[in-house]
Amino acid sequence: MSKFLLLYFLLFFSFSQFILSSSFSLSFSNSTKICPHGQSLALLQLKKSFSVMLDSGSWVCNYYGGTTSYPKTEYWKEGSDCCSWDGVTCDFVTGHVIELDLSCSWLFGTIHSNSTLFLLPHLQRLNLAFNDFNGSSVSSGFGRFSSLTHLDLSHSQFSGLISPEISHLSNLVSLDLSSNWGAEFPPDGFGSLVQNLTKLQNLHLRGVSISSTFPNSLLNLSSLTSLHLSFCGLGGRFPDHDIHLPKLEFLSLQGNGDLIGNFPRFNENNSLVHLDLSVTSFGGELPTSIGNLKSLQTLHLSGCEFLGSIPTSLENLTQITSLHLIGNHFNGRIPNVFYNLRNFISLRLSNNNFSGQLPPSIGNLTNLHHLDFADNQLEGVIPSSTLNGFSSLSYVSLRYNSFNGTIPSWVYTRPLLVELDLSHNKLTGRIGEFQFDSLEYIDLSMNEFDGSIPSSIFEFVNLTALYLSSNNLSGILETSKFEKLRYLTDLDLSNNMLSLSMSRNSNSMLPNIESVDISRNNISGIWTWNMGNDTLKRLNLSYNLMSGFEMLPGKRMQILDLHCNLLQGSLPTLPDSTFFFSVSHNKLIGEISPLICKASSMGVLDLSYNNLSGMLPHCLGNFSEGLNVLNLRRNQFHGTIPLTFLQDNYIKTLDFNDNQLEGRVPRSLIICRRLEVLDLGNNKINDTFPHWLETLPMLQVLVLRSNRFHGHIGASKIKFPFTSLRIIDLAHNDFEGYLPEMYLRSLKAIMNIDEGNMTRNYMGSEYYQDSIMVTIKGLEINLVKILNTFTTIDMSSNKFQGEIPECIGNLNSLRGLNLSHNDLTRHIPLSFRNLKMLESLDLSSNKLSGQIPQELTSLTFLAVLNLSQNHLIGYIPQGNQFGTFGNDSYYENSGLCGFPLSKRCTIDEIPYPSQEIEAGFESGFDWKITLMGYGCGLVIGFSLGCLIFLSGKPEWLVWIIDENIHKKIIRYKRSTRRRGERRS
Asked: Quick check: 430 and 409 in contact, CB under 8 A?
């Protein structure tokens, strides 16, 4: 009976459960179809407030979001149950909309403060990520969702102030506003949010402006698992105390450049998986306690201020996959700790000061994809790998180190290797043959490789960049080998010993090539390689032996450098897109065609050192708004200089030196306000001094030498003329009158140059550097680069007269001064002793008189001195640089004596003490002592006179007098040197 009752009970219970479950299912089914009418209308109205655009965050969603985007609202239909709509989830009991996921929905438009979105008060989850809300603000409406636990507005173009009401969402567990780069918290807004949202587990605000100090209260959110505050403008100091956040797995403070601190201290009970402090001001040494981060997989500290060595406790991080320490101040050897760290995928330690050899345990990293030790001080051979070591390697960069030896064999056998950069080392031997064709980028430049280019390189069908410059590679390179490199964009084989065998084969055209540099090789003959007609932008074939072109390659050429070849014939026709064109140092002939003025993008035009002739086209000065440099030096042009220049032009250099140009200097140069170099030397220009150039604020170099300039230079009409001028060459003209004292007083650029605190560089730009010819001791010297500290004045071979102005002594940064071959008179100014930087001084062939100032011996940089052919007298100063000058520095000055001349000085020619020496006697002069000495001297002198007269043998006295003169000279030089030392 009991068994029967038990069976009955079980059957009844099962039937009841069936009835209940059926009823419950029916109820649920009915409830899911119940969508409150008001909420359905609110959603439909929300749909209408946006347009659907494919570009609205779709690609970002696909790239970052990891999902496929599509327009979810397109499937919302009026009259249907909103609970069944895409992205909408309802409560199964009440039917209220509790979740709305419109992420990646191609939405475009503005969310206004009265949007119907805020009529969904029961929302618990809201995701609007990866759309484009067109600068909408995170308004106060978002603060109405009191039940909200998850809010994601990331990557959706929100901007402006974030409403403080968002901090009222006290139930929030996850808040993601990241990558809304125009959004910002109001003052104290972020602090309030941290204080109120105590349940937060995920806080992602990447790119949102917080602009405050790091709030310590953040570290009290014990439930926090993910904290992403990169690029938020945080400052102040990160706490130094231990961090007790046992659930924290993700911490990123990247890009907060004003945030300082030491490496964060985590207790042993931590769950940290990802730590990113890149591009902050964290610094100091890495603590050994870093080994406590046993769960750590990613450690990124690039662009910080860390220093010291890497602690060996790093070997405890057995889960680590990515270590980035780029751009710090680490030094010492890289520890040999990689035997057990087999999970490494990315190891990047570039731009530090690591030294010594690479640890051999690196060869065990079988999962490594990225290996980057570039820009350090590493040396020795590159380690070999184990049998399976580096088997997953795709990126290798060891550039800018001092590795030697040959390329290790594993480099040639890694099947997944895509990028290889071993440039700027000391590697030797031949480049071997690669076993796989996966490489897309190769840079082996600046090494000591020899032999030919391996044929396997020409099998890399995906190769985009090949850099083999500055090695010792040789052999004949056939252009037909490039047939398979159809994706190649950059080719640099410069500074080797290669020859080319060129083919007209259309298969070797390199259809995607953009930049080619084969300069400084042995390429000869006619260029017939028709490459990159629609893509080539940069071609450098300089320093070769080429004689001509079948046709210029590249319809879109921007930079064409052909200088220092053997090119013959006339100038080629340039594409209109050309920005830089240099054919200097060739053998071109003919005239400049006016068609060159069609190159309206031209910035640098260098036709110097050829045999070009004819008159210059009138358009040459105004054909390009961006023209920086026009260099026509050393040709055979005649006629006048172009008279017109564009208003607000960018011309910096005009070089017409060594032609046969005539006429006057065009007054239109006055509008070239950026002009730095004007070189009109060695022409037939007939004009007076172009004083109107004095207003050009940036003019640094003015060369008018060897023309037919004439007349008085005169005085300036403005208060501060030529304020930037530091190289002046007016030599070999017919200027007359006095030296232009007012101009010489105004040369501020030659005064008080603080070379210790200035960056030395050369005049010019990345593509072009200015040069100048200077005359030193009668020799023309070509300065192929002009250092920004170089200064010189050359007014030689004119008809200047009168005395040399004392104000030249104020030009204390002057390095060269040449006033020779004029009619200058009177003394060498004492103020010349202030020219402490002077290296060359030529005052020869004038009518200077008086003595050479003894003070000139203080010019310790003086290497060249020429005072010949004047009327100087007296003793030649001795000491310092004056001991190095020969007879030719003083010849045809009949009144000079002393070393190095053979003429000895008499007692009357001993140099008088300077005023400083005389002043030393004034306070201590005693007439009694003087009279006593005079009396004794008279008696002794009378006695010696009698003795000489009686003996008739005065030779011994002559010897005594000569010896005394010699001793006086030595004593004077010693006392002068001691006084100089005391003054300094």
From this structure: no
**β-sheet with 377-380: strand ranges across:** 235-237, 258-261, 281-285, 305-308, 329-332, 353-356, 377-380, 402-405, 426-430, 448-451, 472-478, 497-501
Q: In what order do the strands lie in the sheet with 587-590?
A: 568-569, 587-590, 611-615, 636-639, 660-663, 684-685
- What is the rounded CA–CA span in Å between residue 243 and residue 264? 8
> Cα–Cα distance between 790 and 816 in angstroms, integer?
9
Q: How confident is the model at residue 30 (pLDDT cuts 50, 70, 90)?
A: very low
To which H or E segment does residue 962 belong? helix 955-983
DSSP state of 61: I
- State the pTM of this model: 0.81
Residue 920 binned pLDDT confidence (cut-offs 50, 70, 90): very low
Mean pLDDT of 419-445: 96
What is residue 778's predicted lDDT score, i.e. its pLDDT? 67
Asked whether 753 and 838 are in contact (CB, 8 A), the reply is: no
Number of residues in the chain:
984
CA Rg value for the chain: 42
Q: How far apart are CA 444 and CA 93, in angstroms?
A: 69
Spatial separation of the C-alpha atoms in residues 753 and 582, rounded to whole Å:
34
Cβ atoms of 542 and 563 within 8 Å: the answer is yes
Q: What gap in Å lies between CA 158 and CA 176, rounded to an integer? A: 12
Q: Can you read off the two tokens belonging to residue 960?
A: 């005594």
**For 128-152, what is each residue's pLDDT tens digit?**
999 999 999 999 999 999 999 999 9
Q: Are 403 and 422 in contact (CB under 8 A)?
A: yes
- Round to whole Å and give the CA distance between 87 and 100: 6
Q: Residue 399 in contact with residue 443, Cβ under 8 Å? A: yes
Helices (H) and strands (E) in the chain, counts: 8, 67
Q: How many CB atoms lie within 10 A of CB 302?
A: 20
Task: Name the average pLDDT for the chain.
Answer: 86
Distance CA 881, CA 879 (A): 6
